[in-house]
Amino acid sequence: MKKVWDEDAIRKELARLDGITGLNGAELPIRFTDAQCVIGCYHLNNGERFSFSRIYFMDPEWAEESALDTIRHEYAHYMDYAIYGNVGHGWTWKKCCSVVAACPVRLYNSWKNDYYNKKQTEKEQKLLGMHDYKAGDYIIHPKYGKGMITTIAGVEIMKTIQVEFETAGVRKLSLAWVSDNCIKL
Ligand SMILES: [Zn+2]
After folding, report:
1. pTM over 0.70
2. Backbone angles phi, psi at 151, to 5 degrees
3. CATH 2.40.10.170 domain range(s) in the chain
4. Neighbour-count burial of 45, counting CB atoms closer than 10 A to its CB (0-12 exposed, 13-18 middle, 19+ buried)
5. Assigned CATH for 132-184
6. How far is the centre of ligand 1, averaged over its atoms, from the C-alpha of 159 (Å)?
């Protein structure tokens, strides 16, 4: 029989992860939503909590591994914020993923996000992560290596930065992309 992912079942997995991290994620409120495009979310605004879409979690056809990975993905966000004070999918989040054995890719968010890019929660998370960047900061780009931010232009999600790379010249990049894919030094 397929597992039913009710609140108790989710909390049980959170408690197991707490056993690994020594944190208290299982004590946070859990809400269910009817969201089609956001399968899970760790919320910071208006009180810390997790939310999960019942469209997936109540679907008996949905793979148990996907449910577990979603829970661990969101737990890693909780852990990232608790330990490093970070939001988004940066290197500290990836570090947390490796601790809780979550797949360190944006998984469900990546393909959904292209279509549902306006989803508030994701946008808020992204914007929060993007506030950290200023001219003079160094980043490590997966392809171009180390570089220094020289200018930031644009607003919100449309922000672009100019980066002077040590070996790859000057490049203009989307800050949202950088925030997700580069390491900030
Ligand atoms: Zn995420």
Report:
1. no
2. -140, 155
3. 132-184
4. exposed
5. 2.40.10.170
6. 20
* Centre of ligand 1 from the C-alpha of residue 63, in Å: 19
1-44 pLDDT, tens digit each: 567 799 999 999 999 999 999 999 999 999 999 988 889 999 99
Centre of ligand 1 to C-alpha 133, Å, is 20
What percentage of the chain's residues is helix, strand, coil (to nearest 5)?
A: 45, 20, 35
Q: 40 alpha carbon to ligand 1 midpoint, in Å?
A: 8
* Spatial distance between the Cα atoms of 81 and 72, rounded to a whole number of angstroms: 14
Q: Distance between CA atoms of 172 and 185, rounded to whole angstroms?
A: 18
Answer yes or no: CATH 3.40.50.720 is held by domain 7-123: no
Task: Kindly report, residue by residue over 138-166, the tens digit of the pLDDT.
Answer: 999 999 999 999 999 887 778 889 999 99
